[in-house]
Amino acid sequence: RLLLDDGLGARNPRPIPWPGPQLSANNTVRTGDKVSGLTGILDFRFGAWRLQPQSTPAFSPANPRAPAPERPESATLRVVTLNLGNFFNGDGRGGGFPAARGARSATQFEQQKARLVAALTAPNPDIIAVTEMENDGYDGDSAIAELAGALGSHWRYVETSDNTGSDAIRTDLLYRSDRVVAEGSPSRLTTTPFDRRGRPPVTQVFRLIHSDRALRVVVPHLKSKACRDASGQNRDQDDGQGCYNHSREQATRAIIRWTNALPHPDGLSGTLITGDMNAYARETPLQLLEAAGFINAVRHIHGCTNTTCKHTSYSYHGRSGTLDYSLVSKRLLPRIVDARTWSINSDEPRALGYKGPVTVPTGQPWRSSDHNPVITDLSL
Length: 380
Known about the structure:
By secondary structure, the chain is an alpha+beta fold. The chain contains 5 helices and 19 strands.
């Protein structure tokens, strides 16, 4: 791996020089873009090979920004899944910043909210599954109430009382009340290991208005690979899966048991497990779900080759992969019309984020989070 440095002695120079003349909201560089005219001095520092350029490199787009994918004509239901990147709304009344996570000021929060609303509404979904929502209840000042209000008058959220776990963040579901109905009571998995730690997954059955067909949605968010406080089997086992894989494995087994035990109302077309698994497709959690009969819908529709794997959801140190999934039961698979990611976030520079140094017009979806949304279209 070769890092293009800037040849400057100052840390975090402003303006950011690449791509020339400087990085801006509409002069971005994305994962997969090409660079030419690289001449300079090769050195090794801070654990990486770097090129200190002696002339301005030329960037050319190879991965242009794409508009939100249109809904297929045959699709009757669209589900959008997004890791919100810590959506914390302070005290819910414009104050209380910096929040425990997320925005450091009310101004940053308004920028974050506007971008997330743009990212979530552009695909025109019926149901939205989210992770990294502030775990602050469901009253009028809560983060989810604020997001639902910003999405529009038709949007409602699923409320699961006080079984949301002890973590600062949780998973949640929102839906358009003029298109779908939340049927029956929602529930969360609160047995082992979620009785002691982690973020309890949420599930809800939704039924299309004026239809007898229904869909169960399950939203997990497993432990990340970060190694803080990892001990015993949760330490990095040098098998490529990072820290806390044992925790993710135990959580996945519990989710499979729970999902299989949930009741099956009349007209249920199947189950969609969609959220941030913090695991790649060849790691244990995804292998367990595959063995349990859940199919990776994105890969079912858009397969990978030996050299290319499109529709990824996350980028780590310049390497693209998938942590966020649309996993469908075998019964639901025939009803999948399309499943894809929309590359608005992980392919963009972090400097364009709402905390970054580059000013971005309000309401653009680009770099609204660090994960790409996953979009699932079904015909029920």
